[in-house]
TrEMBL record:
Provenance organism: Arthrobotrys oligospora (strain ATCC 24927 / CBS 115.81 / DSM 1491) (Nematode-trapping fungus)
Protein name: SnoaL-like domain-containing protein
Domain of life: Eukaryota
GO BP annotations, alphabetical order: polyketide metabolic process
InterPro entries per UniProt: Cyclase_SnoaL-like (IPR009959), NTF2-like_dom_sf (IPR032710)
Pfam families: SnoaL
Length: 136
């Protein structure tokens, strides 16, 4: 059996490779994302909303903590997300410049698969990079 860290690293690499079939195999049939349940395929659609506007977008694991010692299997991560938006994203128009944002995310695993995701992303930092007037 793989460790939670190994499973999570495989999951992040699958996202970076846009290997959505592998992502689906690593999550439960229903994933709870920020308290709302989604079928696995719809959960992947949420990810493609972020990856499609920036084809070079990659997730980099900055901090990774896993705990599988108790009744609940948990993974916590601080991710650096880097890419160059080519299309509008969250209402922000692309500038042609790369952006980097931080995401803090917590995962609950059940039977070795991701069941629940709680995430906070630095949208303010993204906004500052995409709309900030750098001419000052």
């Amino acid at each position: 059996m793989s460790s939670l860290k190994e499973i999570y690293k495989t999951y992040i690499q699958a996202i970076n490779d846009r290997n959505w079939a592998l992502v689906i195999s690593l999550v439960h049939p229903t994933v709870i994302w920020n308290q709302k349940p989604y079928p696995a395929e719809k959960y992947v659609t949420l990810m493609t909303r972020a990856t499609d506007p920036a084809p070079d977008l990659k997730f980099h694991i900055d901090i990774l903590v896993a705990d599988d010692t108790g009744d609940e299997q948990m993974v916590s991560a601080r991710l650096l997300i880097k890419g160059t938006p080519e299309k509008e994203f969250l209402g922000f128009r692309p500038t042609g410049e790369s952006v980097e944002v931080v995401e803090h995310v917590f995962y609950r695993f059940v039977e070795g698969k991701i069941k629940e995701v709680k995430t906070v992303i630095d949208i303010e930092g993204l906004r500052d990079q995409m709309v900030y007037d750098k001419s000052f």
